[in-house]
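User: Hello! I'm new to structural biology and keep hearing that structure can be predicted from sequence alone. Could you demonstrate with Iron-binding zinc finger CDGSH type domain-containing protein? Please show me the input and the output so I can see what each looks like.

Assistant: Of course. The first part below is the input, the amino acid sequence of Iron-binding zinc finger CDGSH type domain-containing protein. The second part is the output, the predicted structure written as tokens.
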Amino acid sequence: MNVIIGTMRNGTRATLRQPRLFTALASSMCSTQTNKPVVAAKMPFRVKVTGGKRYVWCACGHSKKQPFCDGAHRTKAPSISPRLFTPEKDSTLMLCACKQTKNAPYCDGTHFKVLFQDLVSSVKKVFKMNNV
């Protein structure tokens, strides 16, 4: 655990302990570039598309216009390129948001595996924090 010592307004000194979970989260957020996709959402995006129109699906997970690309990969994940696709007809599609699909850009249900891994990871962290 990190210890932060500071002086309060009234002149007293305070010692605060920073939980490990926060430390791990903060250190993982410091990286500016990645070569692995980031989970944009835990569930797929339901999107109405127009047949014959070309779409660019975000493969890195950094786009602010999910599930579509806004060019964020150029600075945050230069090794990951977006996926171009053109639907044959007007339809409603489920586009992958976890970025782990084997059938990009379409959802193949892999997000259930991602959800389960996140749950297991959270439970392990809780038990580690209680044992220390």
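User: So the tokens describe the shape?

Assistant: Right, they're a compact way of writing down the 3D structure. Reading them back into a model, for example: Confidence is low (pLDDT under 50) at residues 18-30.
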